[in-house]
Automatic annotation (TrEMBL):
Residues 1-147 form the UspA domain. It comes from the Bacteria. Belongs to the universal stress protein A family. This is Universal stress protein.
Length: 281
């Protein structure tokens, strides 16, 4: 049974991500773990020591979290036809979101995290919120981030930009392979170069990718002399892309885009779900 973590702050943004997960895996046996991490706004250790009678505040917030999680499950049951393959568990944790997600991934053996982008949005641009980016960076689990206004559509056309520097393993690309297979999708692998030929390592990795997706609709696009974010945006405009997938490997263009800029500088003209795959260490 696939184990899927659904962090929620009870916003419509997180509800939209839940809808996507339920639709994407409607034919799969799944355990969905609804997680709410809470910290009372005025919670501080020195405050609790000085005013112990106020410590009940934590219990009150926990109870509110549990009630709201129950409401989410009730909303799922009322808005979706009952799916015997889907099972739900709720988790209310007094912790930061990043820490609770990291712990849940280990304790629950999570296969995939599905969450809202929770960032600032413009007419055509999504700026990822700090929570989402920190989870991309620090949690060793695939993350599927869903734009807040995205209406579910099956991912039949997937864009997979890569620098061909990562060591591709069946285990790390398992979730991408499953999504491709579930949706009879076409995987558009895109390599952006500055005009140089592939080196020996890149050629080996290119061949490995083609072998791993043998039997699927697989296309390789070699794009020259174009900055990576521009290449991604241009490809999305010219093709009907339903899902963007990238590998988060150290010293890659992914790291340059996301972790060497401030949050406000991070921006794709992204209006489709974004799958981030960690590399194995």
């Amino acid at each position: 049974m696939k184990q899927i973590l659904l962090p929620t702050d009870f916003s419509e943004n997180s509800w939209n991500a839940i809808i996507y997960a339920l639709e994407l895996f409607k034919d799969e046996e799944c355990a969905f773990h609804l997680l709410n991490a809470y910290t009372p706004a005025i919670y501080r250790l020195d405050y609790v020591i000085k005013y112990p009678e106020q410590f009940g505040l934590v219990d009150a917030v926990r109870n509110t979290s549990r009630r709201n999680l129950f409401k989410v499950v009730s909303r799922i049951n009322s808005e979706f036809t009952k799916n015997e393959k889907h099972h739900f568990q709720t988790h209310a944790k007094f912790d930061t979101l990043l820490s609770s997600v990291r712990d849940s991934v280990k304790q629950l053996e999570i296969d995939l995290i599905v969450m809202g982008t929770k960032g600032a949005t413009g007419a055509k641009e999504v700026l990822f919120g700090s929570n989402t980016v920190h989870i991309f960076k620090d949690v060793k689990c695939p993350v599927l981030a869903i734009p807040s206004d995205f209406t579910y559509e099956a991912p039949h056309e997937i864009l997979f930009p890569t620098d061909l520097e990562a060591l591709y393993k069946h285990s790390s690309l398992k979730i991408l392979k499953e999504i491709v297979k579930l949706n009879n999708a076409r995987l558009n692998t895109m390599h952006v170069s500055s005009g140089y030929e592939l080196n020996e390592k890149q050629q080996r990795n290119k061949d490995k990718l083609e072998s791993m997706f043998k039997g699927s609709a697989y296309l390789f696009h070699d794009i020259h002399t174009m900055e990576i974010t521009h290449a991604i945006n241009e490809f999305q405009i010219k093709h009907k892309i339903n899902l963007l997938a990238m590998i988060n490997n150290k010293h890659s263009f992914f790291e340059n885009i996301f972790f060497k800029n401030t949050i406000n500088q991070i921006g794709f003209h992204l209006n489709v779900p974004f799958l981030v795959i960690p590399t194995e260490t």
